[in-house]
Amino acid sequence: MQALYLIDFDGTLFNSDKFHTDIALFLQNKLGVELSFILEAYKETKVEGKPHHLKKHLEILRVQNIKELQKEVAIYLLSLGNDYLYSDTLQFLNKFSHQFLIYTFAKPDHYKLKLKVSRLNKFRLPTLMIEDNKNEYLAKNLIAYKNMYGLGLSRLYPKVYWIDDKIDSFNQNIEGVEFIRIRREGDKYSFEPTPRGVREISTLLELI
User: Fold this and answer.
1) Where are the beta strands (DSSP E) in 48-205?
2) SS3 124
3) Whole-number Cα distances in Å, 79 to 22, 62, 73, 75, 76
4) Residue 75 burial (10 A CB sphere; 0-12, 13-18, 19+)
5) d(C-alpha 207, C-alpha 180), whole Å
6) What is the C-alpha end-to-end distance of the chain, expressed in Å?
7) N or C: which end of the chain has fewer CB within 10 A?
8) Residues 208, 201: Cα–Cα separation, whole Å
9) Confidence label for 151 from pLDDT (cuts 50, 70 and 90)
10) Model pTM?
C-alpha cells in the first residue's frame, strides 16, 4: 500500500543535540568564553517561541563579523566528518524518499547548514520550514491539500503517517493521519511519555 510520510527532521532523522553541542564547543574555543554562557545564548534564541538560528545566536554573543564566523562554523563541522544522521536514517530515506515530505521547525539558512553537513542535499528532500506549531500547521494544510486534490490525494496515498519525536506534535487529532512518535533512547525528549493513541517506535526501521 502506497503511504505518505510526513516526517520531522530534528530528533527524527538528524541528531540536532550533538550538532548543537559541537557548535557550542567550537564557539567556546573560538571566542574564549564559558560554555554555560554559550548555552544560555542558545536558549535565548528560542525564548520567543522561534526556532534556533545561528545568526541570532552569534548576535546574542555579541560576535563581530558574524558571516565570517558562520562560514568557520560550517567548515569546522564538515571537518569533523560527522553527518549527524541516526543509524537508521539513510536506510529509511532510500526506501521512502519519494513518499515523504519533511515538516521542520527551522530557519532556512540554519536548515541548509544541517543539510550540507549531513550530506542530505543529494536527496533533494521536499521540505516545509515552519516557524509555528507543526501540529496546527499540518491540520490546516492537510485540509487544504484535500480540498485541492479532492479524493485524488486519498487514492494516491491511502495511508498518511506523521512521525515526530516531540509529543506536542500530537496535540490534536487529524482525520486520516496516523501519529507515530519516535522515542530515541537518550535524546532530550525521550523522558516524556508517548500520548495515548499515538504509536511509539524506537527506530525508523520498524516502518520498513
Assistant:
1) 100-105, 127-130, 159-164, 177-182, 199-201
2) coil
3) 12, 25, 10, 6, 5
4) exposed
5) 10
6) 12
7) N
8) 12
9) very low
10) 0.88
One domain, residues 112 and 203: yes
How much of the chain exceeds pLDDT 90, in percent? 52
Query: Is 131 found in the same domain as 94?
Result: yes
Is pLDDT at 133 greater than 90 in this prediction? no
Pairing status of strand 177-182 against strand 199-201: parallel
Of 36, 58, 80, the domain-final residue: 80
128 shares a domain with 172: yes
**Residue 131 cell numbers, joined:** 516557524
151 and 89 belong to one structural domain: yes
Q: Phi and psi (nearest 5°) for 84?
A: 65, 15
- Whether residues 10 and 20 fall in one domain: no
